[in-house]
Amino acid sequence: MSESTVDQLEHDRVLAERLATQRLTSSPMERAIDVVRLLTGVQCQDAPLARYSIALRTGLTDQAIRAELDAGAIVRTHVLRPTWHFVAPEDLRWLLALTSPKVESKMAARHRQLELTSTATERAHALLVSELAGRRWMTRPELAAHFAEAGLPSSGEQVGHLLMLAELRALICSGPMRGTTHTYGLVDDVAPSSPALDRPEMVRELTRRFFVGHGPASENDLRRWTTLTLTEIRSALTELAARALAVRGIRVNGIAPALMLRSSGQSEENFEIMHTNNPLGRGVEPEDVIAALRYLIEAMAVTGQVITIDSGQRFYGLHRDVQFLGDA
Hints:
disordered C terminus, 15 helices, three-stranded antiparallel sheet, Rossmann fold
């Protein structure tokens, strides 16, 4: 069998398993919210098509899916990336806490172009809280009119970004549909409060959910789907694998070495800066990695850990990669 044939068979196997995992070829789910919980987030920039994608996984009519949306069983908001997603109300707050800061930071330049100052944004968001209080659902045009009346930015794109920021900051999300028009309401009226989680815990949970609901998948699939870094994803995978395999006596650890070898086209000067620009004033040598490997192999009580080998480079915000080690 040729290598290309093997590759095609593997491609077909992965595709078939993904279709089954996402309930496109396996048994349908009972409710729309079951699909949303399985997938964690369903992109819905085009809401009718997003509802159709849920119908494919459930057999429900569009009317039935809209009924779940109108009842608040599912909310529509900007989360994970700068686009709308359907999410479960109980997942809304922690998903926003995990992913919103990076999404918002990437939009900062556009907000300056739109003249959305911090003062204007804060005033607009205070107005939203006031106008939407008491489960008063409003459409985007209605809210734009309130912005204009208050002397706030009120052009089409300005309003869209002010509302997006309010969604990213967990102030507002979708309310019941009004005919074919979306409305907004306060998150406090829609999503239950939940205990605060630390970032590593949220990263682990999102990583676990993604592979359960979308797999087989790669770390790059998850990176593209969220704002998480590969380093965060690989650290989460290390701990998740360690937890799952510990009952079989298998340890899983990782190492995160800094730059050791000169990349293609990099000058000697730039390499030396990267190699020594750290608190210890020394670069990482292959021997340092070997020492870490030896420790992880011999330390039989250590599992689920990622050892950073960078002479303190991480204090300067420099990126590292994570390599995996597993031993039985």
